[in-house]
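Box 3.1. Reading complex inputs
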Amino acid sequence: MPGVNDFTLKIGTVNGTGSASANGLLMQAIFRMGIPVVGKNVFPSNIQGLPTWYEIRVNKDGYTARNAPFDLMVAMNTGTYKRDVAEIAKGGWLLYDSSWPLPKALHRDDITVLGVPLGEMCVETFGGDRERTLMKNIAYTGALVGLIDIDMDVVMGMLHEKFSKKKHLLDSNDKALRLGYDYVKKHFKCPLPIRLEKMDKTGDHILIDGNAAAALGCVYAGATVGAWYPITPATSLMENFNAYCQQFRVDKETKKKNFCIVQAEDELAAAGIVVGAGWMGARAFTPTAGPGISLMSEFVGLAYYAEVPAVFFDVQRTGPSTGMPTRTQQADILSIAHLSHGDTKHLMLFPANPEECFYLAADSFDIAERFQTPVFVLSDLDIGMNDWMCRRLKWDDARKPDRGKVLSAPDLEKIEKFYRYNATNGDGIAARTLPGVHPKGSYFTRGSGHNKLGGYTEDSDEYREVVDRIARKIDAAAESLPAPEIITHKGNTVGVITIGSARGAVMEALDRLRDDGLSLDYLRVRAFPFSKAVHDFVASHEKCIVIEMNRDAQLRSLLILETGVHGDRLESLLEYGGLPFGTGQIIAGIRGILEGVKA
Amino acid sequence: MPGVNDFTLKIGTVNGTGSASANGLLMQAIFRMGIPVVGKNVFPSNIQGLPTWYEIRVNKDGYTARNAPFDLMVAMNTGTYKRDVAEIAKGGWLLYDSSWPLPKALHRDDITVLGVPLGEMCVETFGGDRERTLMKNIAYTGALVGLIDIDMDVVMGMLHEKFSKKKHLLDSNDKALRLGYDYVKKHFKCPLPIRLEKMDKTGDHILIDGNAAAALGCVYAGATVGAWYPITPATSLMENFNAYCQQFRVDKETKKKNFCIVQAEDELAAAGIVVGAGWMGARAFTPTAGPGISLMSEFVGLAYYAEVPAVFFDVQRTGPSTGMPTRTQQADILSIAHLSHGDTKHLMLFPANPEECFYLAADSFDIAERFQTPVFVLSDLDIGMNDWMCRRLKWDDARKPDRGKVLSAPDLEKIEKFYRYNATNGDGIAARTLPGVHPKGSYFTRGSGHNKLGGYTEDSDEYREVVDRIARKIDAAAESLPAPEIITHKGNTVGVITIGSARGAVMEALDRLRDDGLSLDYLRVRAFPFSKAVHDFVASHEKCIVIEMNRDAQLRSLLILETGVHGDRLESLLEYGGLPFGTGQIIAGIRGILEGVKA
Amino acid sequence: MTSITKPKVQHPANLKNQIGRTRRDYEGSMSTLCAGCGHDSITAAFVDAFWQLDIQPHRVAKLSGIGCSSKTTAYFINESHGFNSVHGRMPAVATGANAANSGLYYVGVSGDGDSLSIGLGQMCHAIRRNVRMLYVLENNGVYGLTKGQFSASADVGSKSKKGEANIQSPIDPVLLALTLGATFVARSFSGDKAQLVPLLKAGLRHGGFALIDVISPCVTFNDHDSSTKSYLYTRQHYHEVASVDFVPLQREIRTDYAEGQRQPVMMHDGSMVHFRKLEANYDPTDRAAAIARVRSAQERGEVVTGLLYINESGMDMHAINNTVETPLVDLPYSTLCPGAAKLDALMEEYR
Amino acid sequence: MTSITKPKVQHPANLKNQIGRTRRDYEGSMSTLCAGCGHDSITAAFVDAFWQLDIQPHRVAKLSGIGCSSKTTAYFINESHGFNSVHGRMPAVATGANAANSGLYYVGVSGDGDSLSIGLGQMCHAIRRNVRMLYVLENNGVYGLTKGQFSASADVGSKSKKGEANIQSPIDPVLLALTLGATFVARSFSGDKAQLVPLLKAGLRHGGFALIDVISPCVTFNDHDSSTKSYLYTRQHYHEVASVDFVPLQREIRTDYAEGQRQPVMMHDGSMVHFRKLEANYDPTDRAAAIARVRSAQERGEVVTGLLYINESGMDMHAINNTVETPLVDLPYSTLCPGAAKLDALMEEYR
Ligand SMILES: Cc1ncc(C[n+]2csc(CCOP(=O)(O)OP(=O)(O)O)c2C)c(N)n1
Ligand SMILES: Cc1ncc(C[n+]2csc(CCOP(=O)(O)OP(=O)(O)O)c2C)c(N)n1
Ligand code: SF4
Ligand code: SF4
Ligand SMILES: [Mg+2]
Ligand SMILES: [Mg+2]
């Protein structure tokens, strides 16, 4: 039951009209009231004039998953009235701009309709199309302030911060806010039963999106070269990296940069740039999405076989092909696992939220250099582009980059002769050198057949020796990758396995089910290849339900192949329509599967 | 035991010196004597000056697999003496050019050494570097004619055919042939125990390589548009297509072509051209190898999602990356199965020899049009570039192309309105139209989200409806694809599963094992996704040994994922050093596995 | 508030052309671009050009890559075939389509990101092959759809770039095409319908690859740091929360000026572009002169517009290939399959 | 018969350069190219150029794609770092390497297939970014390594093409680079060491992207249908069985002629190329003049050689980016990581 500090609301507008700012303001205000909140943007793949939505969930217990239907719908777009009204929960509220009539057909008996003539009021109050359009957003914000009891001081504080140097804008915003606020106060019983009350649950937290957090991770890891080609939803990762570098990496006096970002001509080039920079010894990365991954695959095979460290971020969106660029999915897992022709296998990391984006981004460079191979960090649009409530990000100043086996000039002085692909101990990792460091470190890098000495070869045994070692190296890496998140309860025989952004909804669903007397174990993979802990989890449960966001059960496939578990012990719960999992959907899904199993 | 019409020989030379012609002549002569024979070229990835080998196997029973060590070694390259001498079977023979001494260290007690001063004789007999170099090859051919009793009439007949219009060349060749022939007749006891005797076992056969056969299949299927970018070992496929088209597809009077071959600027473009042509309604194809597959993956995803028929030939070579371009492997299977980002699954056909290249190439166009999706024909360097003995290729003039569901102008006249992605019956296939045919057939093709009416969508349900149907369509295709080759014997509990060019060695190994009292069942997959017959085979055997040519057991992975069999019922026998499987290797491998299983 | 529904492209009259079709028959779905986007103006010109040429709608194949510009193939001639392919690779799809069916009209619509960055190689090779198609490059100097990164044509249509051209020189598709031997090269401006429509018509009729570079201002991301009227400025000083949130409704920029004249046009960000229309007696058959003309205009800070070069005697891809006249897709299978007897005969050569 | 072992590149003397190195120190592994291949001549010129410039071998990074030409990076300066990457994508690898470490000498070696077909886009964009590197395009008009298909530079170095240029016009890397704003553009001939070595040295010293297009005949596949001396003819009339079986041992083609002079050179297939060396007083600082010069030479059937254009004041990628002087790879981690305190402070902005 929705109630105080526990409800969902959704705002339907048209993109390019300024609503995103207003929605951000709204969410931030709730956050500053100390109440756990999360917001999700559902936007079209164009720039102006199409329907867009913003979903806010307020939850005192800190659950962050999507939770449709919605308790309060703010329907500002006549073009989507029908759809929006249908999504209101029984007993919920509809706030609409009564300057445009709500068609009779859409009236519902089981909801409360609140009409506010926002458009009209703004036309009366403001001059010019531009200001009228913009201020309407602030006006509905004002209405919400009144209806759900947002702390007016907090909101005003934010407006002051924002417009400290633009008095006239402050005035308009203030005026607009009051328009909506006063109207609802006057016409409706405020606040509604779904309303806010200050808490102190967000003090240790921040609101950040995954792309910003990942970019910050790259900065802290000491990445110096970034190559990219713009693509939704990965674009803001590099934009953020650039912004942080401008802040932290530009010499105050000389204004010189100690980083180099290359906007490449396409993703093939971006991948090549990262490989070139990694070969030189820089920490280099490229953020992209599905189509970019496809285009990068030739270079990924080269980096794998020539053993060049490189970091790839795949902010997944709905595929295949161009698919739905502004919708989310986890459907690149299987292609990346064996990306590029020939025998390959790649390391993958799977952050579940922006916080993990930060830490895993930082880790990814250590891992890439340690194992001298491409590392993929797979987040998705939901994580990458939405603001999530996370714990404050921390850094340990004692942490130093793990560069792996890199021979320095003194190291090279000491040895007789350097051979690039000659691994001397069991980990399968051969020492490398960086160009220009020392004459003895010279070697020839190639994607064609080579032997362990680094020489060109077409000899079967010499070829096999190298690719066998690489296979060993990759498999051995499993135990050094981020460990899975595991929650078990004694005696459980059924486990749930999930990945990435599905975490929030799964965790909440498991809590709910447990409250209802159904206890299930939980594992979330955070890396591929899977470590022993994953194998053990799978082996020690009679049945696991694999919850992931793609059509083809890709994680399940990798689990079967890697752990050797029989497929009939892994059930699938899938969502791939482009929106994040909702908690209810998972609860229903799990119940359905378990009933099927029993039957 | 080697003997009459049952032995192997290998010739080591330097590439670019004209030996390939001589070796071809040799093999063809044996073939024309009615004796089953097969030749394999082991050549370097350069143009001139590096070691190259040619392996010939003569086998009266028609076994065609590689069979090292060799009964007779013709060592013409001082640079590889050591390696070549080591590869001679106990009791075998070494023929070397005694103009250059054979280092003492290389002498072996267990072989017979036959020195022929080929170089010296040619210097004495011919003038000019060019002729001397070329004629030395014919001279060793002459020596072999004497040593293994090749029919001199057959050889002379071939020279006459070849040089009918070049009397002086005929004379030189004749002279060179006699040089070698007379020398061995004079100095050694001829013929050797390993020798030839005329048979009548090749009358219904031809000698052809897989690329030529596949090209012919494309011609017969009515392909009109070919796009390509040169790459070893796929290059000769398009070169052959061009040659056949020049022969069969050019109007005798106008000299106009009814085909269009585009040498693209790279593989991305080649794929795009094929997609464009397929969309227009032409039968279009592109041949490539591993690196090309990686580059094509973005377009493959588009064709999959927009449902455009397209045929891709992957003549596999040793990967990953550039790998060993002149060596063979079957290591693109897994990448192709799920090529491109997002949820995808692709149809694959696996010919085992040139004969199947012809028939499956022809079929691939029917399949691509019927299922409106990319079809991959995966052969490999061994099949594609070596001459194999096959049954004569046949064509049934009654055969008509299966264009699948294409609405004609009259069809369109009859219907109210056409919607592109609206499948009305259970097969999941929606009718398509071809551009320009009829106003009512117009529709918009895109790789972005679309609904079943062909409209752009970002709606979850509409999106899912289409991708779900595509998944159904691909899975349902399994039963319409070429059936597996299966040989079973009552009561067997162990089966062998293999693919492509491994067939020859596996079949022979199974025969041998059966002669030795070990009977195993056999299945060769010829298509993906797997049909019920494959599922049944896997299900009905306690254990299957999966024999394939890659490091990572890719076919085994697909079998596990698709059939749901538990991995511990599938053992792997792998070869991935770049050379084809040898029969002995498979016998030993199977025995080893079965012993391991018992132990 | 409502969805921003823009009227379908409107035309003066419901006149019928020679094949009995009204302009409406050449319209497409409703545009989802920003109000005032230059690309929409080009769409309107397309409608006019096709209508005026009396082309059967269903005999038109429209191809594009990905981008705001590439979307526009959906906004004209509903009753034709459109293919929104992948980013930067439309030239290959068009090449294949044309190879298969030489009988249709081909129109490629692309953007400067699509053509000059990711698709540069493909565009150059389509030019080299002389694939018969009208290729319209809707050039706004930015990546519109991914929200405003600079493209390789950089600051096209702006005077505020002050010498930046010397730092990272923009790629000029017109000079490139002239260098690569293109047989039809023109430049125009989205707002100059009087010039654009005839150029589109000429391009559609050309016997090879016809490139028209159309300067087409992006109303949303056409900003330069230095311009105080720019969107960038507004964004930085007004809305920090979401990066592309408010897009003011702009009006399309129009112009109309005489041949030989210089015409300054103000862009949405307040910067000026100086167009110079080729004079009536300009001779468009001299490639070297065309190159020199474009360069000298650039040096004067002008953007020269009009048909810069044309050569109707060039051979297109099919002429080079010597393909039959009948489109390949229309050849009956019986003429394509050599039949069993020929195969049997051929087998003898493999013995 | 024996393996064809070719002598390592030989030099007149074992002289030491300023840093005490002999020419031998700049040699590489034994070439596996065909005897007489033009690419081997260029390799020899590289050895001389590096030796003469007193460059520390291990401070050289050699990058290439895939092809016979691309293999040659293994054939000079063993003691340097080489990267044989993937076909056509070397410019990106070089860009990344240079971004990471601005302190080394960068040499890219490519072929006409590698640079003008699959790699065209990348080469153009490396030019646009002005990545500091010497880029040598070993141009033979064919795909050597895949056995002789025509490349996009077609019949380079041959007079026997009789008008084919008008049918599918070859892409001229020199004109392209000039059009794209390259800051160092030259052309030479593999056999003209006297011209080539100084050009390589100049290119290595250039502060940006230096393109040298070197006509480098392929001895094996340089044939034209019409030439009776060509390999193609030999093949068709002699050996049908294997398509590339016999490769005659050829001698490298050499030439040496004075500035301003015209020099006809016979190729392996018997065709003639007419080289014209720029005169001593040619002014290489005028881009438009350079373009005109290349075009007019082409019209006369000449291939003009020499340093066509240079501009030392252009800003390279790092100058545009305003990167610190210290190569990025040499920056200590402490200067790269902002540290915990700054992160804590930053967190306040996310509330
Ligand atoms: C392979 C790939 N990379 C990146 C993208 C993202 N993307 C979509 S449109 C676009 C640029 C569009 O710029 P332009 O072609 O100039 O078109 P405009 O929007 O400016 O008209 C990009 C980078 C993509 N769709 N596919
Ligand atoms: C992606 C990819 N496609 C095709 C090839 C095959 N291939 C190798 S070299 C080459 C062309 C080489 O031509 P060029 O660059 O002119 O070099 P040359 O051998 O003539 O010196 C091709 C097509 C490849 N290695 N990779
Ligand atoms: S973002 Fe720019 S290019 Fe895209 S639709 Fe809007 S105005 Fe046009
Ligand atoms: S094939 Fe041509 S380019 Fe390649 S090595 Fe031989 S001569 Fe040189
Ligand atoms: Mg643009
Ligand atoms: Mg070449």
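In summary: Chain B is about 40% helix and 20% strand.
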